[in-house]
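Archive entry: two folds, one per protein. Generate the first.
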Amino acid sequence: MTNLDDPYLWLEGVTDEDALAWVRERNAETTAVLTDGARFAAIEREVLEVLDADDRVPYPRRRGEFLYNFWQDAANPRGLWRRTTLESFRTDSPEWDVLLDVDALGKAEGENWVWKGAAVLRPDYHLALVELSRGGADATVVREFDLRTREFVADGFTLPEAKTRVGWIDADSVFVGTDFGEGSLTTSGYARVMKRWRRGTPVEEAETVFEGKPEDVSAFAFRDHTPGFERDFVGRHPDFFTSEEFLLTPTGDLVRIEVPDDATTSVHREWLLIHLRTPWEVDGTTYPAGALLATDFDEFLAGGRDLAAVFEPDAHTSLQGWSWTKNHLILSELQDVKSRLEVLTPGTWERAELPGAPEVGSAHIIDTDPDNSDEYFLDSSGYLQPTTLVHGTVGGSAEVVKQAPALFDTEGLTVEQHFATSDDGTKVPYFVVSDGTPGPTLLYGYGGFEISLTPAYNAAMGRAWLARGGTYVVANIRGGGEYGPDWHRAALRENRMRAYEDFSSVARDLVARGVTTAEQLGMQGGSNGGLLAGVMLTRYPELFGAVVCQVPLLDMRRYHLLLAGASWMAEWGDPDDPADWDHIQHYSPYHLVQSGRTYPPVLFATSTRDDRVHPGHARKMAARMREQGHTPMYYENIEGGHGGAADNAQRAFMSALAWEFLLRSLSD
């Protein structure tokens, strides 16, 4: 099937009335089947209780003397942007100072505003650039907000709806990349041109400081506000995994940071960190993919190559990220998909373990205060361990400041890690959460973009699935970042089938171990994981009893032409290139599905307001299956963006649809 003979192109009209009429018909059919029983209502209520729980952890972000938090609950479905002090945060009932009520703002302005974040000006923290989305889309409006008056700044920095990149330079100027008109965006729909915009002037008169190429993914510009080390950086992302980065001097000159294109860099005070995706040979020394190198920033720009390897991976260990405090570097590592934290002292790079990571679970540094102190906030959890938030100081004390309650019964449940053998002999790890009784099992996966799936507490899943006798499994397949860049690269482009072979090997291993049967094994995935779900549906239907496919990519012949799709060609390839299409066509679900073949029950779920992955993927797949005589279920939330929902009530409803579908398909 080519673009020319695709009978369902009309469903790509996101808000076309005919397409929306089709959506409403499918939604009505699905809700009539799935929402008519007491169990659906119970699951929806249980999930909403989790999402709206008053005693869940309010994750803080340090901005000067205050801790900031964005909070949604039943009384504030669109949320409150608020702040408090550390002293108050430590108490059981912090006194929150509300800065912006998104529900009240939306009501006053007649808009369905969804919070998308705020950039607060350092080091004074008295101004913010607030981003708001209509219905949850990636495109936002930008408005300047005064934290002293709690009001938007009249005639301040304001931008209309677009996929904008914006950040503070100082109180009277910002870097901005947005839709300036023809030629200002890349083919992926992101900013190509970055400008310096001064207060009181029209944005049309902003000064261009950097331009990328039309075929790039995006361009960027930002200021490092670290006191005493203020610097401006600009650059471009030719594709999703590469960049060219420059120091922008006060005279407007560009000084290239000469690292491999696929490396990532970050600067803290005098230090430059370089994270490698591929091996790099420097002065006779070859540093491996996944290594983190440190050097003096100014000396490196001057040509020096005195590099310290502060992290090198091995067969079991990878680097997931790092965080700076004022005087230390904290590394977040994975060892066979289990978290480990280390603290390094710059210069000597002496290392020590940072306690707090669970034995089988995830630990993340969610915030530090690198301008002023060695403070850190550490978040940890596991499949059966609720979230714990620790506040500490490197080299000093640490205390639990928040502990989420247990929201489902874990009596009799265990977590085990196993390894399946993929088609090429690779050992693929996966976690099983179970009471040991064979039965309905849900297998979840993603496998793309270097994203790692680590053990974490999921109370909604625990209530809806585990508490009803289900087993939950997470597969750490290639394409993810669980074992570093090589684990990701092993399933790139022409090697993409390895990710799907990995996932199918886990499915078979679950049956071989007696955990479940093919008839009682369901799988779930969203976004790139939605593509995974589509591949399992069409290439491995005999392995599954049900498939939940959420905000998916499915038409891989046209994905690069739809919304942000062009930005992902480094992951899958260019369908217009015959050599790339030669391998893509073997897993493109929209092209593989056929009449006369038996498929497991499938639920497609997406959002009209998803402006990242086009809802046309799910629409067209469902329509094509219906034409072929299959009976897919389909539901499209009108709001929600790529997350599929704009508030907790919508999230609970969408979640309950999936759980009810799985229970009906695998248990009843």
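Generate the second and append.
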Amino acid sequence: MARQKPLSLYRNIGIIAHIDAGKTTTTERVLYYTGKKHQIIDVHDTKDGKGSTTTDYMEQERKRGITIQSAAVSTEWKGHQVNIIDTPGHVDFTIEVNRSLRVLDGAVVVFDGVAGVEPQTETNWRLADQYKVPRICYINKMDRIGASFAHCVQGIRERLGANALLCQIPLGSSDEFVGMADLVAGVGYIWASDDKDSTWETVPLDQLKDRLKFGATVDNEWIANLPKLREEMLETALALDDDAFERLLNTGEHDPALLKQCIRRGTVTGELVPVLCGSSYKNKGVQQLLDAVVDYLPYPGENGGIAMVDEDGNVIGEQVVSDDAPARALAFKVINDQFGTLTFCRIYSGVIKKGDTLQNVTRGKKERVGRIVEIQADSAREIDEVRAGDICAFVSMKDTETGDSLSDPAHPALLERMRFPDPVISVSVEPKTRNDVDKMSTALYKMVKADPSLKLEVDKETGQTVLKGMGELHLEVTIDRMRTELGVEANMGKPKVSFREAFGHIVEHTYTHKKQSGGSGQFAEVKMIFEPTAAGTGVQFSDEIVGGRVPREYIPAIEHAVKVESNQGQIAGYEVVDFKARLVDGKYHDVDSSALAFEIATRQCFREAQKLSKPKLLEPIMRLEVVMEADYLGDVIGDINRRRGTVSDQGHKGTSAFVQGFVPLAEMFGYINFLRSATRGRGTFTMEFDHYEDVPASMVDKLMEKETK
């Protein structure tokens, strides 16, 4: 079957933002205005559990009023197919944003008009930078008291470092917000009402000054400055085309179609970030946002294909997005639900049909494509084939996990993987009854397979099953989903912190391994230097043997021993990070030496050297932002100091005060309970992992005692 729609009419976009900026509300309005649904359900109407928005369909999402799992929906706008992924804003579920951005061609970044750039917005922006995803900024909630378009734009430019191109200016704010001035089209849009089916009037820019008068001086100033703002926008955009820019300077005229082409070119290359505004909840600006998605965000392949890599992750080529190339797809998400195991894939090239066999290049296994479905959040529509640029789900694939590459078996290729964060918190998990032991193990395996930011281990000393994740809410939701989706009841133990260990200073150490008990013995001697390195450099091994003091065939065993032994340090058995192990000398015996003997010698050398280095314990430090009423500022800052934290910034966002700082994760368990009582339920906080830091020597014993309880 031939392609039904040209690739240039596809848009694969994500909606990303900080929690509560309005992503899900915006997605609901998009689906309504594109005719995909005929009723709007608002997020705050779902907490009674009776209704759900299209993309927040899980019980856990309805109960909490937040997005937990990214959801895919497809719709049409002006002849274009728009595939949308609504992503979570909570830091505990950053993994969902990470893997969505990996496979999307563009993103709409939603901002709260009052709060502006928030911590999770920065995290998501950095992820989008990492994957080179073109973006549009949509400043939402312009109808809220305290909304400030200028504050948001300043944050986008200064905190995100973006070259913001103002394409729209709000007409009014708070309860006077009536629409926006479109600097590209040269007109203003004034809505008749807040109703979802309300029409808007299109007014030339030069008439807006006489038509509109607002109570707030700043809102009137925006309208007074419209000619200047339009001129700045034209100069910035048309600077991407020399002839058009020259024409603008000489005659003051421009070609409207060429202007849009320039904005599109700048957006696709990342040189420009168009800024729009509106109020999704009050049904203003969503249609214009859709127009911008079609006009400015790239179609699949327009900003390049996906990198092909070798087994070590080195880029060896690029797969262009084309139907005529061999079939290649990237699995970016695996979920288990009522349809069975669904493997979400982005098709980068070729055509894949029902019944085809694909090679899982990552795992070296064959997978048969039984059924292909197009997902609409929690419902699915069966389709017969998918082509380059499509996002779909394959049903019941057995061995494919998140990040795996699927290819035509005759033309295998590894596609660039995603990078996942390390978990920072762990809990013990126990089945509620003895009968649930096997069921719990199976359920946990399914949850971990679906979410790469979860890790499962068995504590060798206690025999406990340990689940690691990105935060308390992340782990709590995982256990809750096991109950609702897989029918397995489990109890969660007290959260524990994932500490790390490090060498205190450079140590040179020699260890000789000798064993003689009749027959052939064992002999190996290694002389090694262990030196701490900068944070984030990981474990490095350097072979500096000269003159054959240690035969070449034993070097891999020595390197392997260093890597294995670094998994368990000498302070409390935590992973040892950021050091360089240099093998500088050694001795061997023609008969008694072996790879095993050198491995044993290296492991003992490592253990003794770490102890001699006066090792350090490292703890995860979280970046914290608390938003509350100004009256409670002193209490919140005092509490941060009591928790061994430091305050880096404080100020006001609209009518609220905020505090930003860094606090050890070990001191943050149950923080929500303090905040609720201290602020009478009015305070909110967000927290994300920032870096590891030395634990003060006086605190080591106290923390370790707390961890073992």
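Annotation attached to the second fold: Residues 595-612 form the longest helix (18 residues). The two ends are 63 Å apart (CA to CA).
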